[in-house]
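Dear all,

This email documents one entry for the complex benchmark we are building for the journal club exercise. For each entry we list the sequence lines for every component of the assembly. Then comes the predicted three-dimensional structure of the complex as a token string, followed by one or two observations. Please use this as the template for your own entries, and keep the labels exactly as they appear.
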Amino acid sequence: MLKENISLTQLEALLLNFLLGSAIVIGIGTDAKNDAWIAILIATLIGGGTILFYWFLMNRLPGKTLYELLEFCFGRKFAILLSHGYIVYFLYNSGRVIRDFGELMASALMPNTPIEIISLTICFVIGYILYLGLEVLARTSEIFTPYLFGFIFLLTIFLLVSGQIEMTRLLPVLGEGFKPILKSLFPGLLTFPFGELIVFTVIFLNVTDTKKGQKASLIGVGVASFLLIFSSILMIVTLGVDGILRSNFPLLSTAREVAIGNFIERIDAIVVFIMMLGILVKGSVFLYGALKGLEYIYKKPFRYFSIPFAMLVAFYSVLISVNFADHLQEGLKLVPYFLHLPFQFGIPAVMLVILLWKQRKGKKNKTGWNYGSNQKAKKNPGT
Amino acid sequence: MAPIRRLRKTRALKKIGEIKEGKEIVKQEPSNSLLSLKKTLSGAFGKSSDFRVIEGFINGRAGILFYLESMINPKQMIKTTSKLFASKKDAQPFNTLDEFRSFSREIFGGVRCKSLKDDESVSQAILNGSLVIVIEGLTEIVSFHMLNTEKRALAEPSTQTVIRGPKDSFIEAVSTNISLIRRRIKNPKLTFEKFTIGKDTQTSVFIGYMDGIVNEKVLKELKDRLNGIEVSAIFDSGNIEELITDKTFTFFPLALNTERPDSAAANIMDGKVAILVDGSPFALMVPAVFVNFFEISEDFYQPLYLGSFLRFIRYLSFMIALITPSVYVGVLTYHQELLPTSFLLSIIAQREGVPFPAVVEVLLMEITFEILREAGIRMPKAVGQMVSIVGALVIGQAAAEAGIISNIMIIIMAITAIANFVAPVYSFSSASRLIRFLLIISAAILGLYGVFLMLILMVAHLCSLRSFGIPYLSPLAPFILEDQKDVFIRFPYWAMNNRPKYLESEKAIKANPVASPSPPPMKGE
């Protein structure tokens, strides 16, 4: 099987769209009120650290996915157990992302269309893209990324021209000290969106130039954070803190403030398009992570799973919560502690310790280095 | 005359008799035997009335000429045969093949001569417009290429017209097409290789490329695919295109076709391969990528800014042709709030008398237009007037007044139609023409969301396409910075010193980098 390659720009585009994904839909750092942008700024530094941590982890054994790393650390049997955990976690996250989008569509563009239809259609597109492969996903996001910048630029210009922006709404800076910022940082911003980069550990090996990959990922995270901070500031100066807290989809409410002359009044469609792109990439990348896990466990090309599991994600996205309030509550209170922290940081940290220990041991008695390949050689005759 | 001929004949027969008795150096081959060959060929060509056999004596030896009257150039035929049979008195009867060669060189001059071994190749040669000469006693059958080169005169291109630039175009005769390209690229590296494709039609197909520039992998792949073709008939390059492209089930053409020799030459210089099919005035260019269908050679003949601007117009009109009707349907059906109130009111007032929902209205008009378009192409020229009059009635003011459609619909359809005609390569406009209908239907079901979904599906599909291994959307995805000189805007011609990187040609650099031609120093400098 030929390896799929993605270039550095494609990796950046994927990271950018992934991080914007649902973060731009439901707004992040809202706990910090009008200092949300400071919170995101600090989170960016942590996010950069996070992705470097994942790179460090993956560079211990180059050319291996997260799942193969699990096997190296824990042995195949236990790795399969953990892999199932990761697969469900990724599928669940994908479903959450799709749910966010479904709720957005239901409240903004298509109020009379049932959310099931929205989920099914977008999941079909995701399934189709993944059926075509990771390369196609990367290229598609590469094609659409310039439009993303264009639309955000247009939105800014329109808001400026229609006179809705009041810079004083940013004041007071740090009015309540650092406490709200810390509150929004942990575990909120740390795990969502930056911690979710754990899924990229199955993509890193596809990057053509792994040496420059770290730098490119940092650039991707940096640009995404810049856009997140930018949009956060845009929301604050347009809507004010109260407006943001009242609105389910702050960026959409921001776009609705646009009114130029009597002509350009409702540009919801443009904003929904920005969001749709991010959602599509984020949902696809999560699903891809899960599919690669299935490929690892069942030793079948992931393409076979793509459409059925996309449909499963659509199913998940409808079933995970009764309504939007429930969905948000679950996402803010339960998921970060019970799912995000262990899967994003807990298991990887344990893995890193085991890896370093094993490789140090390997260095002492030279044979240990080949542990991974021995394992593979043992495994191959059976298959 | 008659007695002399009889005299010669008897003399010749006597000679043959002598040869047969054992003085002959040349060996007698059974397949070469005159009678048996005559029998086989007459059987093969059966009742064809244009198959001719002439028997006679050439320099005292019995010989037969086979040819197809309809394929041979009559003037040349008369000139050579009269010489061939009018043997001089002191003519030495030739005994060896070499002697015959030197004899025929006098008569036929530089005409392409070929030795044939078996019956199969003899009938092929006859079919290709050769005069086949068989002489008793010679081991080889010789054919002379005397194809009737009757052909259409070079005319202006009919589908890919330009304002400024060369006005000649390819014609149906492949030899002329090759010469049109050769005249533009005077370089021995320009190579044309011949393939014979079509089990029954035996069509000549030529591939032309610059040796040393073309991507060898692409060339090998192309040759493999051409050799792999197993069909009975090839009539146009369109047949070849469908047989060799990477994917048939797509709306997008994966090979560029052009009827302009200058564009073909420019593409060959970039490292592409041209495929010329005998009988087709369209050359195929492979590998072709998406952006190639928006570039025309005239971009580089026109002033810099205009060239770039027109390119932008082309991309814009592709998008307009693609999405305008579906956005109309989506907005009017689901998202009325996106329109400014006064505009919405005016549209609703116009649509008051229209009995159909927007999607039916759009489909009705689009189908009507497609019918008109097809009628416009197929109708006999004599009734052209009528179609335009009736067409104006069907999709014009009259339709709106009759209450079938709204006025805004006419405008939507008109802009879609005009934008669709902008595509420089006709086969590419079929993509926007067909996908438009998918978009209209998805807009009717899911509104603008459906349109976005469909567009994303389209882009994903485009990303998955490849033309001879080259990603179809390169140099956009994968993004190649160096190739952006010739995508959305065109750089000055002196700045184009690299070949497109996505083609991975063997020689990437076209010319040494030069700066803008600098003017003399300004006064006071």
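Observations: The mean pLDDT of chain A is 86. Chain A has one domain: 8-374.
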